[in-house]
Amino acid sequence: MKDFPGTPGTFTGLVLRVSQCLLAAGSIASMVTAACFFRYTAFCYLIASMGLQVFWSFALAWLDSYALVKKKIIHNPILVGLFVIGDWVTATLSLAAAASSAGIAVLFYQEDLGVCHNDCPKYQMSISLAFMSWVTIKTSALIMLWILFTGNLIH
Amino acid sequence: MKDFPGTPGTFTGLVLRVSQCLLAAGSIASMVTAACFFRYTAFCYLIASMGLQVFWSFALAWLDSYALVKKKIIHNPILVGLFVIGDWVTATLSLAAAASSAGIAVLFYQEDLGVCHNDCPKYQMSISLAFMSWVTIKTSALIMLWILFTGNLIH
Lengths: 155, 155
Known about the structure:
The structure is a homodimer. Chain A is mainly alpha-helical. Chain A has one domain. Chain A is 75% helix and 0% strand. The radius of gyration of chain A is 17 Å and the shape is elongated. Chain A binds chain B through residues 40-42, 92, 95-97, 99-104, 106-107, 110, 113, 145-146, 149-150, and chain B through 40-42, 92, 95-97, 99-104, 106-107, 110, 113, 145-146, 149-150.
């Protein structure tokens, strides 16, 4: 079960990490092109959270590529423990950031607050990408937890 | 490991379920006493999500009490599978609801939107209780996933 799809060091694992990275980067890009995003704490928090995810997923994509090229199995308990903690922290932060930004975006849509209405589609795109990014990181987090709990590790 | 703290049918499991139920009920109570909560989608969503959690946690608390009184072990694969799905769905919805409401509450605090400012402490109390409730349901969800993945089940 060492090469179960999505586990570290597999091609599907690499695809998951790269998609997390791209979706989070897309979310940041869409948010920063909006003119007034910095006025809203939730949107700044979304950028910070997606920034953390880009950094984390990029590091793990790099590690996956290294493991694939060198044909190494990187399922040792310390590494998998670190992956689990990192994935769960980033997944929780991403969901919270996406949900809080979505709350604000829905408020903008419902009530005429008279600010930044031209930016609303950019906010919506950014939030959608953040939710998609959360789905991919959550998938990774569940796979990591499964490896840790079932003991598919090299001691 | 059948009586690991927090597993279904244990006293700690029952305490977790009852605290989920009470925190979610407290969150709803605090929100509905605010005069204008119904104007904001995120707050209505918080009430719906906390309502679902009260219902779910109450049902599981009842099941835990039954198992404790009758001294039955309720770790069969179908039941634990159901608990995992229910716990993960309610935990995700609770976090999303608490985060989106928190986004709105922070916006109210920062910008003078001229509406319902007397209600802000009630919103904040409701959101804090919702976050605490999420911590307890997430704990239950992790324990359930651990039972499912490690195969501590009766077939």
